[in-house]
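Section 3.1: Structural characterization of target chains.
Under the original work plan, the team committed to producing a structural model for every single-chain target entering the pipeline before any wet-lab resources were allocated. The record below documents one such target. The sequence was received from the expression subgroup and is listed exactly as submitted; it comprises 233 residues.
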Amino acid sequence: MATYLRGALIAFTPTALIPLPNIIVFQYNPETMTHTWTQQPVSPTGGQAKGNPLAVTGLPGEAFGFTLAMDSNDSIADGKKVSGTLAKVSGVATRLAALEMLIRPAATKGGTLVGTVTAGLAGLGKKKEPAAEVPANRLPVVLFVWGPGRVVPVRVTTLTITERLYDPLLNPTHAEAQLGLQVLTGADVTGIGGGPLAAVANAADVYTDSLREVLALANLANATESVIGMVPH
């Protein structure tokens, strides 16, 4: 009997020492997935009426979309002590809560979602600098893991949950979650700042990009065979 890997979302929460991973393993792999690429706009060319149509401002945007199914009855039937007990007590509520945390910003002590930073006076008679809004909180760093060939840093952009069945305490026992993931580019990863969180995201970005380039080179073998097949014998 074949054993299949299961996809996962790994969220890293910042702590005082090292980031703590919260691993959300898919109960069932989605049967279908959309993988969307969006090209960046054409780069401006110094006021010229018409520039190079192939010049762009950066790497293309990349996004994934899929639906996850969850069923507490299967968790109970599996006979696993921890997951089975949680399923009996709360249905799939714990799985849903873990997904919901991916789209909520991590709270900082004494902070609000958007803080205002104002530069102080440089001295008497100096003009006060304008206020600049900066995010006081930020979303967790999330890795989308779909087998060894695809590990990418992402930001969860959309989450739509459909609850279908409930237990006597109205805990959902069956649900579906539609997720939209935006892949972070190298520039996005740089914007995270330094520290272990940025290092984790950068390592995943470099790994997947390098593997994609290797696979593209390997496809030259297919192209060669196709060209040979076009030549009349």
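The helical segments are 72-77, 81-90, 93-101, 186-192, 196-218, 220-230.
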